[in-house]
Amino acid sequence: MKIIQTVEVRQRLTEKSKQQLMQQFTAQKQQLEQQCEQLIFEQKRMERQTSFSPKQIKEKFEREMQVRRQKIAELDFLLEQLRILPIGSEIKEREVEAIIDVQIGARWAPLKTIVIEDGIVVDIREG
C-alpha cells in the first residue's frame, strides 16, 4: 500500500548557503520596502483624486503597509538569526509530500527528514 507522508527538508548551512539565504532575505526586505514607498505614493495620489475621505484612504493604506512592515520585521529577525547560526547548523527549509510504500510487518517511521547541503542530498533520516 502506498501513502502520502510529509517529509521535512532541512538545509545544513555552509558559507555558500548562508550567503545565499542572506541575499535572498535582503532582497525580499528591499522589495517590501519599495512596496511601502509605492503605497505612500499611491495614497497621496488617491487623496488628491478621489471622493473618499482622507481618513478612509489612510486606514486602507495603513493596513497594507502594516502587513509589509510585519514581514520586514520577520525578515530582520531571520537575518539576525542567520548571522548567529554557526556553519554546519541545520535549519528547516520546507516540508514536502512523499509517497511511501507501507507493508504489513514493516517498521513504522512516522517522519523522515532529508538533509541537503548546497543543493545536494547528504542524509535521509528515519523518524
Q: Could you walk me through the main structural features you see in this protein, from its secondary elements to its overall organization?
A:
There is one protein chain. This protein has 127 residues and is α+β, with helices and mostly antiparallel strands. Helix content is 52%, strand content 28%. The chain is built from two helices and four strands. The chain has a four-stranded mixed sheet with strand order 2-1-3-4, with no helix packed on it. Helix 1 runs antiparallel to helix 2. The chain is elongated. The protein starts with a strand and ends with a strand.
Outline the secondary-structure elements:
Layout: E1 2-12, H1 15-49, H2 54-84, E2 90-101, E3 112-117, E4 120-126
Please state the overall shape, judged from the principal axes of the Cα atoms.
elongated
- The average pLDDT value, as a whole number, equals 87
Number of DSSP helical runs? 2
Order of strands, main sheet, comes to 2-1-3-4
Q: Using only CA atoms, what is the Rg?
A: 22 Å
- Proportion in β-strands: 25-35%
Strands, total number: 4
- Unreliable stretches, pLDDT < 50, 5 or more residues? none
H/E topology pattern? EHHEEE
Structural class: alpha+beta
- Major β-sheet, in short? 4 strands, mixed
